């Protein structure tokens, strides 16, 4: 009988735990299956084992068969394994207090300076060789880097400029190596980069940031303030030794006399420009012309002038930097901007002046002609201008309230419907991160590439819009962006340089 | 007491034998109805009183007609609509819902006690007559036991109370419940995809396995390098990436003019199930090691918010755990309108339903009409409604402003 009873117990345990309702049923008799509920009622699996109704032996048998059932309820808070030793809360607290404390960052740690690049890789303008020549078998050649990628630099980079397929980055150090260049070098816009395979030849494409040997008089004292890149030439501004120019000089954009039949590739020639009245405070490169702004507020230009972009009153080539006149004579200019064939200048009082190409309605508000070769004042009523940028077909300015105004032709940033306008249109500040939670967000800087725009707000966020040529917007998509879109960068963006199909940002890490 | 009482389980036999036309299955007949019939029979037979076990707590009937009867009775209470309660921490939200239901039922059952129906009965009695004891009929007034609450059980046994967006056990805050017809509004509120606002408290220096301070310790780190502006920067990045994700999940073609207009007004929001998205985040208090954030989010879980706190700690090159998650707004319902535990009674709930009726109706109408109008394009114009509601209630800021020229 006992054997039969235990057989019933094991049978029950294998099938399902007994389910009791009301607790009024009693175990009756030996071998009687009365306390086993029919399967149909067991299926609901409700109300766990209410062992009150079981008789003594069945109860012990139940517990004996299922030790785990008992242990798990006791050791619920202790740990994962059912056999883990239960620890009291005091033991846990003591263990926590005794745990080691890790320090990842010191109390007075400095934020690190970083450089992020993205865009078209094949010319080597991004400066990461593994994009073109993979150094591991699992890496593949990359045509486009669609999102920001960190570029490792030896020094803290203070200035960067993107040309047409090449990049210059410079640091304010007093070391001998102050400027690095990468990308296209067919016109020696990166200076002479000696090839390691053949000592007489130079590289046509520089795949990683390579130092540019500048003929400085005092290389260990001079600091590089700024770099600028055009289509095939580049300018470097120093604090004491004037401006250095290198690259293509077919139109005199390097500020030296045009030599017929000069071969620009593998050239060692770096020209120094010092004949300015006053120190040069800013340099900008257009496509085939150069502008120099001095501390006095005057602008000098040289290079191609067929669109009037030199602003000297004629449409010829200028090979010597010459001062501009027109509406900016006597005006103290604080900023000049150009990248294509039109130019903008901002005075200290917030006035805007423009000259150059006007085929895309950049200057249509003041003239019907498509080329303006003398600087003209642009009487826009948009407040005091703080920053301006010229693209290939569109222009953008920022006023002192932090609002962005765009005009010209192309994707201007107000949706696909606005493709051209002669008068500035404001882009709503909500697109630049203004919200209820951050009401004092303002745009602080505006930059232009050839057909894209980049804006920086005061919280260090970067917004881009325009034509997404070969992924140059860095938003991860290949489609054009018709209104400002945030670029996700792991850091606070300090400056951005836009090129034709790539961009470079100078970033400070968060911590 | 029960002199001639028969055991309950034999009542079946009685009804099937004596009542005509009960050849149909017994399950079609509810226990209550069988009780009723039994008492009728008993009175017809001899007027004995049937007492029965007193059933105090509401019993869940299994039979469909009983459910219908309970629903019918519940409908008569007039409790229909949405209201918000304040869920305390440490209690499961299902428990809260059950407690509210039980409290309401208790109050409803204790409310009205209509007078027990009386009936006139002619009962046979013996009377001293001429030839000894004679049988005559005496008029008496007896209560109809079938209608007695002790026989029928409590009037209200079940209330349909549905829970809105749940809160897990450790968190607290506004918890929306719907009663009666309000349960349909709960579905509408879910489909409106409104945002919810939380205040989250965190503690630097510790990392645990479940991201809260009651979990198992994983690592302890220093946090003396953390300053307020570093935290602000991290929060700005979180907001920025989530804003991008918001636009990406909204299923709008970004090349269209309407995408630009919606982005300007900040009205783009996904109208379908998406991973958790944070629409706004800011720091309310910063006193190392403690800090408090306000987070407005969509499709979130409270454990996701704890994970966000943990990740903020990692971004700051330290560690953080979440000590408190408190919901301060769920769609239209804010902390002001949430009822505290001491206020969970019938009158307060009725008032709460009445107060929230209009704003819920207006808000849901607007969001659903815009949803219908937009068709395939998933957009939401509910921000306008929300901001209006917030301005009237004076609560925290809405998600994005409409500063458009």
Q: Largest sheet of chain B, described in full?
A: 9 strands, mixed
The biggest sheet of chain A, with number of strands, parallel, antiparallel or mixed sense and barrel status, is:
4 strands, antiparallel
CATH superfamily of the domain at 195-330 in chain B: Pseudouridine synthase
Oligomeric state of the chains present here: heterodimer
Distance between the termini of chain A: 77 Å
How much of the residues of chain A is beta strand, in percent? Answer: 25-35%
Summary?
The complex is a heterodimer of chains A (511) and B (405). Chain A is mainly beta and 511 residues long. Helices cover 9% and strands 34% of the residues of chain A.
Structure description:
The complex is a heterodimer of chains A (511) and B (405). With 511 residues, chain A is mostly beta strands. Chain A has helices at residues 2-15, 39-42, 56-65, 67-74, 89-98; strands at residues 101-102, 113-120, 144-151, 159-162, 166-170, 179-184, 205-211, 224-229, 233-238, 243-247, 271-273, 280-285, 289-294, 299-303, 318-323, 333-338, 342-347, 352-357, 371-378, 385-390, 394-399, 404-409, 420-427, 443-448, 452-457, 462-466, 481-487, 492-498, 502-508. Chain A has a four-stranded antiparallel β-sheet with strand order 3-2-29-28, with no helix packed on it. In chain A, helix 1 (2-15) packs across helix 3 (56-65). The model of chain A is unreliable at 1-55 and 61-79 (pLDDT under 50). With 405 residues, chain B is an alpha+beta fold. Chain B is built from eleven helices and 13 strands. Chain B has helices at 11-18, 31-45, 64-75, 93-111, 149-152, 182-192, 228-249, 257-265, 302-315, 346-374, 382-393, and strands at 81-87, 118-129, 132-143, 161-163, 172-179, 196-204, 206-208, 217-221, 277-287, 290-298, 320-330, 333-334, 338-339. Chain B is elongated, with a radius of gyration of 31 Å. The chains are: A mainly beta (511), B alpha+beta (405). The interface between A and B is large, with 45 and 46 residues. Strand 1 (101-102) of chain A pairs parallel with strand 8 of chain B. Chain B: It comes from Terrapene triunguis. Chain B: Residues 377-391 have a biased composition (Basic and acidic residues). Chain B: GO terms for molecular function: RNA binding; tRNA pseudouridine(55) synthase activity. Chain B: InterPro entries: PsdUridine_synth_cat_dom_sf, PsdUridine_synth_N, Trub2.
